[in-house]
Amino acid sequence: MHDVAREAGVSAQTVSRVIRSPGLVKEETRNLVRATIERLGYVPDSTASDLASNRSRFVAAVIPSVSMSIYEDAVRALSSELLAAGYQLLLGNTEYSLDSEEATIFAFLGRRPEAMVVVGVDHTDRAKALMRQSGIPIIETMDLTDTPIDTVVGYSNKVATATLTRLLLTRGYKRIVFVGGEEDARGIERRQGYLQAMAEVDLSALSLETGDHPSLMSAGISGLKKALELQPRTDAIIFFNDASAAGAILECQRAGIQVPGDIAICGFGDFEVAAHLNPGLTTVRILSHDIGKRAAQVIVDRLSGADPHPKIIDIGFEIIERCSIREK
Amino acid sequence: MHDVAREAGVSAQTVSRVIRSPGLVKEETRNLVRATIERLGYVPDSTASDLASNRSRFVAAVIPSVSMSIYEDAVRALSSELLAAGYQLLLGNTEYSLDSEEATIFAFLGRRPEAMVVVGVDHTDRAKALMRQSGIPIIETMDLTDTPIDTVVGYSNKVATATLTRLLLTRGYKRIVFVGGEEDARGIERRQGYLQAMAEVDLSALSLETGDHPSLMSAGISGLKKALELQPRTDAIIFFNDASAAGAILECQRAGIQVPGDIAICGFGDFEVAAHLNPGLTTVRILSHDIGKRAAQVIVDRLSGADPHPKIIDIGFEIIERCSIREK
DNA sequence: TTGTAGGCGTTATCAA
DNA sequence: TTGATAACGCCTACAA
């Protein structure tokens, strides 16, 4: 910046003003400075700017996996809304490990973000303490809780899966199996929803685990096989998500198992593939885009002083019925 | 930090040392300081640290879309390798626009990253100038060029698609259509590979565009319909990627079109779904994980002074033949 | 409209 | 092994 100032024959402060609040600088000076900036290829140092102004313009987001379809829309909405408000998104992966989440949260807090978005409501004690102490808005997403660290924007995995299960029950399915992972917090919630709905009607439940990667198509295939082996008369399976459900549907095509004639298949998430499968996949649509957008709004409003948002924001979900279960 | 120093009865410098180079501090003092840090919940301010030490420990990565499967493995490998080396990944989306890429690059350079990873070799002139001027290692990925800004780690989209096309030609296919987008630089390269291979054997080519989102399954469906309409005797289609190819295969199932009996279908990328479709999808496997890992190695070595890497690193590709094309 | 002084929280450097 | 001092590059506050 001093180079630019010297070259342009003005003070460093004037250069700073041309960048931050150009309106305060005489047009002539402003143009001269801008030309000099351009000529020298000067890029302002945000690090120094952050320190001096005590504003990082960072919003941190910590998600299990950047690549999961279900987070994709949320990240996109979050990112574009925040970008428009002048914030940069600091994105971190946790690969579905709470310890890794804690480490990422710690590292990110060191960058002094102005707000932080995390996925889920399940965190290590230290991670929770860190977030609480940070004093910045913390938005938990993709799930609900009565006791958010600060604000939660999401839907109930448990209620959603219970609702889906009840739909199957009203269609006369009785031997319904749930196939999911064992570790993922959202998977556990989904399982509980299933168990609850089965318990309500006094049906015996069968819940299978497919190991560490319940969101792979191959997990759907092995889950399907396992279910048919343990309970040959299984008439419906609810999978952890649409990827594993898609794996199962494609496996049924190969094995000559009719869906929904022989067995009903449901997923979770309403991924792109759900509508294109044969038969189309009955699933739970998560309004990821809305969650990301709403989270961004909460942040922007909070940081600008206003705070018209409740602490618990239920975005809801939709049951999307397609042909992978029988009609009424 | 001063709070910690005061509480522990040492100087700020000692606290700093406990964090940066604990070996230099007497064990007794170190433990005291650590306990105090823990008690106060102190999180070091990386912003100030960056400024003082002139090291950001940031590596910036600018990719078209965090959610594209093809980048997922690369980002994961990059991220984990860099994390292990003590760097943080600053991840940015460009949503496939070069202008947006330029803006992101500018903003990221302001954070003074120590290296930068970008996707592709096609950038605006200003983006190139910015990257060149920055003086940091710049790794272009997912494509190849003879004239990288600094270093390129990738594979040739053109050669890969030409190779795939030639495979179809050796199987006797003659009326081969390419279905892709129009804007994406990698899509353009792929199209050129196709056109070249067709020209080599003097066959007339038909290349279709499906608009802005060639990587959606629905683009595959519309591309398939368009191809059959414009050239009813089409015997093979190469799609922009595995998502659009998957859409086409599923549409063929519905329409009663036999694959590969009536038509052969190929994709690009070897996404998870490729192996599970019926029939399995013939495609080009991109070694994304290797690209991410190699990019990270180049960065780590460069930043540690060594530089044993060439400027052009071809990771190659593999043709994965499955049943969506006829056998020899 | 522009310039000057001081400080943001940390680390490098040198001294003790 | 520890501490004091001066940066790092910018912004806030105030002065001219």
Helix/strand layout:
Two copies of one chain form a homodimer.
Chain A: H1 2-8, H2 12-20, H3 27-40, H4 46-53, E1 58-63, H5 69-84, E2 88-93, H6 98-109, E3 115-119, H7 125-134, E4 138-141, E5 151-154, H8 157-170, E6 176-180, H9 185-200, E7 206-209, H10 217-230, E8 236-239, H11 242-255, E9 264-266, H12 272-276, E10 283-286, H13 288-303, E11 312-314, E12 317-320
Parallel strand pairs in A: 1-2, 1-3, 3-4, 4-5, 5-11, 6-7, 6-8, 8-9
Antiparallel strand pairs in A: 10-12
Helix pairs in contact in A: 1-2, 1-3, 5-13, 6-7, 8-9, 10-11
The first copy, chain A, binds a DNA duplex (16 and 16 nucleotides) through residues 1-2, 10-14, 16-17, 20, 24-26, 29, 44-54.
Explain this structure.
Two copies of one chain form a homodimer. With 328 residues, chain A is α/β, with parallel strands linked by helices. Chain A has helices at 2-8, 12-20, 27-40, 46-53, 69-84, 98-109, 125-134, 157-170, 185-200, 217-230, 242-255, 272-276, 288-303, and strands at 58-63, 88-93, 115-119, 138-141, 151-154, 176-180, 206-209, 236-239, 264-266, 283-286, 312-314, 317-320. Chain A has three domains: 2-44, lambda repressor-like DNA-binding domains (434 Repressor (Amino-terminal Domain)); 55-155 and 287-317, Response regulator (Rossmann fold, 3-Layer(aba) Sandwich), CATH 3.40.50; 157-284, Response regulator (Rossmann fold, 3-Layer(aba) Sandwich). Chain A is built from 13 helices and twelve strands. In chain A, the strands form three sheets. Chain A has a six-stranded parallel beta sheet, sandwiched between helices. The first copy, chain A, has a four-stranded parallel beta sheet with strand order 7-6-8-9, sandwiched between helices. In chain A, α1 packs across α2 (12-20) and α5 (69-84) packs parallel to α13. The model of chain A has no long low-confidence stretch (mean pLDDT 94). At the A-B interface, α4, α5, β2, α6 and α7 of A face α4, α5, β2, α6 and α7 of B. Chain A binds a DNA duplex (16 and 16 nucleotides) through α2 and α4.
